[in-house]
């Protein structure tokens, strides 16, 4: 049970979007003179998504949310929470822009949340509280990010892009989130993006140890507060800056609690992230989407969902999958979305990467995206967006 006064609250529906392009990591390995196995096995990544010149976190986030609005309408939505660590404005929230693009009622608050990759989970927890306070309300949560590191850096193959949107509601159809969670915060400089940079700075090695510390600390806190034991958890989902990170952390957790760990257990949750690359705030929810789509035995199972945001905050939540959840997922929808991306050559990727800028100078972007929303350009210092007339990301792949 979750929420105050016995209200059951959780994730009612969830949808995914990603960037227009895909870069095959075999091509990047060839360019960098690296054995492709380093990327596929060493990092656990096969490709990464890249937004077109007329896409960004807002267009991806709104594209993820659109099918939810089409399926459920706007009734009860009085809050839009937009989690991102690749924000496009220092003041105006991406939530307000998405709210406008989606045609949501003016009787809704709209806010952006930031704490590196943890922001999506912070939004989920805030949403649970809002719905518990008034179960007639629904909260639209959007987690959307473009992971950008410097060209030719060690972190380059762990870039990516993606968005997940979900509705948080009382008596949810997909997952009921349980009330106890485990927390761990520590001030660490493992990854950050100063205001004058469009690419993140990262101490990759430190981020591995900081991530593990956060998982173990969150587990200990949850075990103490919620009385949960390792055997009570049926499936694990972790934040995946690269999927190997989740494996490393889970190995450390297994050792910490003295539990057996069959490494193939986590593979289903890696399926989409291996293909999109890092999607920061969306990453753990993309893992959740993969599990819901591809694991056929989840009814009544308890999931553990570990979120890590560099800097750092970790939170471990648990949830119970609802009976009948499978009927709500469209088999093959996300795989189709990923298959439909347009391959980009390494030369074109490098050019697009270098051209990506956060400047407020006037410009018109080329028309490239086939998604439902476009980042048209910058006018009078403000970013302009438009609906393209294309259907939802789900329609786009049939
Ligand atoms: N075949 C198979 N595996 C190989 C290989 C090969 N030919 N060559 C190397 N590897 C393995 C290495 O053994 C290593 O595995 P291990 O970590 O299990 O030992 C892995 O590939 C990576 O190699 P490494 O030399 O450590 O990579 P790197 O120094 O080039 O960069 C990161 C790796 C993770 C540090 C870097 O990609 C990074 O910083 N990414 C960003 C991480 C991030 O975003 N953190 C913040 C959020 S948590």
Automatic annotation (TrEMBL):
* SUPFAM superfamilies the record matches: Thiolase-like
Q: Could you give a single Gene Ontology term from the biological process aspect? A: acetyl-CoA metabolic process
Q: Which UniProt keywords apply?
A: Acyltransferase, Transferase
Look up keyword Cell inner membrane and say if it applies: no
Which residues catalyse the reaction? 85 (proton donor/acceptor), 117 (acyl-thioester intermediate), 239 (proton donor/acceptor)
Q: Which residues bind (3S)-3-hydroxy-3-methylglutaryl-CoA?
A: 35, 149, 248, 278
* Keyword Lyase appears in the UniProt entry: no
Domain (Hydroxymethylglutaryl-coenzyme A synthase N-terminal) spans 9-170
Q: Name one GO molecular function term.
A: hydroxymethylglutaryl-CoA synthase activity
EC annotation?
2.3.3.10
The record, for InterPro entries, names: HMG_CoA_synt_C_dom, HMG_CoA_synth_N, HMG_CoA_synthase_prok, Thiolase-like
- Where do the Hydroxymethylglutaryl-coenzyme A synthase C-terminal domain residues begin and end? 259-351
Pfam entry (one): HMG_CoA_synt_C
Q: Into which family does the record put it?
A: Belongs to the thiolase-like superfamily. HMG-CoA synthase family.
Report what the protein is called: Hydroxymethylglutaryl-CoA synthase
Q: Which organism is it from?
A: Schumannella luteola
């Amino acid at each position: 049970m979750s929420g105050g006064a016995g209200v059951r609250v959780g994730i009612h529906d969830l949808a995914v979007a990603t960037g227009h392009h895909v870069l095959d990591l075999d091509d990047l390995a060839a360019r960098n003179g690296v054995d492709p196995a380093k990327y596929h096995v060493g990092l656990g990544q096969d490709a990464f998504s890249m937004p077109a010149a007329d896409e960004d976190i807002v267009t991806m986030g709104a594209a993820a949310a659109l099918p939810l609005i089409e399926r459920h309408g706007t009734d009860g939505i009085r809050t839009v929470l937009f989690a991102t660590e690749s924000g496009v404005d220092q003041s105006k929230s991406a939530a307000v822009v998405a709210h406008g693009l989606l045609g949501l009622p003016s009787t809704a608050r709209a806010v952006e949340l930031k704490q590196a990759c943890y922001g999506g989970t912070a939004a989920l927890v805030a949403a649970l509280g809002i719905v518990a306070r008034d179960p007639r309300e629904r909260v639209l949560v959007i987690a959307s990010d473009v992971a950008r590191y410097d060209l030719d850096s060690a972190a380059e193959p762990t870039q990516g892009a993606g968005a997940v949107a979900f509705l948080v509601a009382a008596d949810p159809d997909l997952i009921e989130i349980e009330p106890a969670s485990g927390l761990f915060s520590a001030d660490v400089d493992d990854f950050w993006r100063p205001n004058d940079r469009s690419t993140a700075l990262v101490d990759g090695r430190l981020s591995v140890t900081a991530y593990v510390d956060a998982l173990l600390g969150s587990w200990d806190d949850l075990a103490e507060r919620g009385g949960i034991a390792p055997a009570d958890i049926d499936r694990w989902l972790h934040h995946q800056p690269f999927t190997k990170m989740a494996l490393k952390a889970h190995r450390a957790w297994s050792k910490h609690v003295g539990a057996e760990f069959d490494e193939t257990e986590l593979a289903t949750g890696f399926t989409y992230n291996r293909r999109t690359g890092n999607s920061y705030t969306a990453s753990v929810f993309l893992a959740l989407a993969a599990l819901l789509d591809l694991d056929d035995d989840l009814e009544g199972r308890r999931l553990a969902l570990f979120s890590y945001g560099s800097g750092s905050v970790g939170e471990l939540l648990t949830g119970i999958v609802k009976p009948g959840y499978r009927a709500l997922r469209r088999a093959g929808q996300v795989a189709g979305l990923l298959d439909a991306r347009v391959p980009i050559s390494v030369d074109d990727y490098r050019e697009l990467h270098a051209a990506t800028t956060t400047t407020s100078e006037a410009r018109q972007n080329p028309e490239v995206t086939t998604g439902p929303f476009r980042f048209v350009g910058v006018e009078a210092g403000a970013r302009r967006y438009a609906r393209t007339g294309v259907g939802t990301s789900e329609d786009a792949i049939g």
